[in-house]
Amino acid sequence: MHWWFPGNASSVGGKVDSLFYVILYITGAVFVLVEATLLVFLVRYRKREGRSATYVEGSTKAEIIWTSIPAVILVALAIISQPLWSRIKDSDTYPKDAIHIGLEAKQFEWHVTYPGPDGKLGTDDDFMKKDSIHLVVDRDYVLEMTARDVVHSFFVPAFRLKQDIVPGMNIKLWVRPTRTGTFELACSELCGLGHYRMRGVVIVHTPQDYAAWLASQGEAAPAASDTASNSGKGAS
Ligand SMILES: [Cu+2]
């Protein structure tokens, strides 16, 4: 059990975390400052014998200060986070040699389509698995996401990635896993009565383990194990 974040497992997670901490420190400091001021005022300006309350109509100067400081902080945060946002969300910047995997969300399952031995989606050797996405560590993937019925949302906390999946749209999301292991995939958009059980796993393998898994996948096995054992040798 993690009391805080699950350990990062993607190439972008470290930067997402850094940004999170910057925002947490800024908002945390403001929170402490505001609460401390509140306490000081409570004590200092409490009701006392012989002292009457002051009637204040407002202060333009104070309003300008408390509006402009948050505005400057917000604009600065937007500017420093923009490059990372583009890196994650702009499909034009995705690696050209990434492996494309189909991910169809439906009530209440994830249908994962693998490109098969030829490495191309939409061909006869594609094969489908439910609720588990198998990837190889340190390799680039583009998930091509579609929804069959309603809006769902792809969320893998360990990857620090979340993306809504909208019917009628083909949405791409790049991921590069950096650590082997089994990670939770959860639908994070309330999509119906069974939303709570719309869970899956992302299993990140070493090239060798992936080859073994692929070989165990029924009819895709003979050709697939050739490809996989080649890539296994290449990596060792
Ligand atoms: Cu869903």
Per-chain topology:
Layout: H1 13-44, H2 60-89, E1 99-106, E2 109-114, E3 127-130, E4 132-136, E5 141-147, E6 152-156, E7 161-165, E8 171-175, E9 181-187, E10 199-205, H3 207-215, H4 221-235
Parallel strand pairs: 1-5, 4-10
Antiparallel strand pairs: 1-2, 2-3, 5-8, 6-7, 6-9, 9-10
Helix pairs in contact: 3-4
Copper (II) ion (CU) binds at residues 105, 152, 187, 189, 191, 195, 198.
Would you give an account of this structure?
The structure is a single chain. The chain is α+β, with helices and mostly antiparallel strands and 236 residues long. The protein has 2 domains: 13-91, no CATH class; 97-235, Immunoglobulin-like, CATH 2.60.40. The protein has 4 helices and 10 strands. It has helices at 13-44, 60-89, 207-215, 221-235; strands at residues 99-106, 109-114, 127-130, 132-136, 141-147, 152-156, 161-165, 171-175, 181-187, 199-205. A 5-stranded mixed β-sheet has the order 3-2-1-5-8, with no helix packed on it. A 5-stranded mixed β-sheet has the order 4-10-9-6-7. Strand 6 and strand 7 (161-165) form a beta hairpin. Helix 3 (207-215) packs antiparallel against helix 4. It is elongated, with a radius of gyration of 25 Å. 19% of the residues are buried. The structure holds copper (II) ion. Copper (II) ion binds next to loops.
